[in-house]
Amino acid sequence: MKLLKYKTANETASALIERLLDLMSMDEKKKFHIAFSGGSTPALMFDMWANEYKDDTDWSRLYVYWVDERCVPPEDSDSNYGLMKKLLLDQVPISENQIFRMRGEDDPAQEAKRYTAITLEQMSEVNGFPKFDVVLLGAGDDGHTSSIFPGQEELLTSQEPFVACHNPYNGQERIAMTGHTIINADLVVFLITGENKADVVADIYSSGDTGPAAYIAHHASLVEIFIDDLAGNKL
Ligand SMILES: O=C1O[C@H](COP(=O)(O)O)[C@@H](O)[C@H](O)[C@H]1O
């Protein structure tokens, strides 16, 4: 596990974008399949990518997926797809055919199956699980990642690549990438910023399987954790 710490959330987002662009530049013929997390943390990175790195990115090779989705229509302010579309995808020359959203407005169980089929069709697989180039995760201050919350640890070892699940705090239905799919990725990256994430970062980095995010960080083979000083202040 490699920890990369920067002074500010801006510097952290910028370093992460540059890391992804570096990875893309390693094989200029290859399609690059990356799954993005939801929540509020990546918003800064999406905005920065559109405004500062638009011309440095080969959009024709970037294939965009989601780690998880809230079961709401794309126009809803809770939609992970909606946020990324507004801040990044609508601002850059990427083809619709390279954007694979989870349909939050559809039946969650059926959508999880449809999304599994799409990802398996688009990229190589290992033991029935799609193999992403990068899975970009966040972490909640309770230690959840993807939409796998504490108490739902069975989703870390589910035999389904994507499942219907729910947020235990408010019952909101969700669709989530499960543990094996995350761990299968060539690279698992966490982007975690802000003081309220300091405990979860300390848990991920210094302890064992204390929650879903920590479990992933300790079980994936290549893990990079991008944090700012505030998130790192309990290390
Ligand atoms: O519910 C979710 O929470 C986590 C963390 O979100 P943040 O707002 O604290 O950045 C996120 O990684 C996950 O994808 C999301 O759906």
UniProtKB/TrEMBL annotation:
Natural source organism: Bacteroides coprosuis DSM 18011
Signal peptide: none
Keyword Hydrolase belongs to the record: yes
GO molecular function: 6-phosphogluconolactonase activity
Family: Belongs to the glucosamine/galactosamine-6-phosphate isomerase family. 6-phosphogluconolactonase subfamily.
Biological function: Hydrolysis of 6-phosphogluconolactone to 6-phosphogluconate.
Gene behind this protein: pgl
Pfam families: Glucosamine_iso (PF01182)
Catalytic activity line of the entry: 6-phospho-D-glucono-1,5-lactone + H2O = 6-phospho-D-gluconate + H(+)
Glucosamine/galactosamine-6-phosphate isomerase domain segment(s): 10-219
UniProt keyword list: Hydrolase
Protein name per its UniProtKB record: 6-phosphogluconolactonase
Keyword Hydrolase appears in the UniProt entry: yes
EC number(s) from the headed UniProt entry: 3.1.1.31
Gene3D superfamilies: 3.40.50.1360
Pathway noted in the entry: Carbohydrate degradation; pentose phosphate pathway; D-ribulose 5-phosphate from D-glucose 6-phosphate (oxidative stage): step 2/3
Biological processes per GO annotation: carbohydrate metabolic process; pentose-phosphate shunt
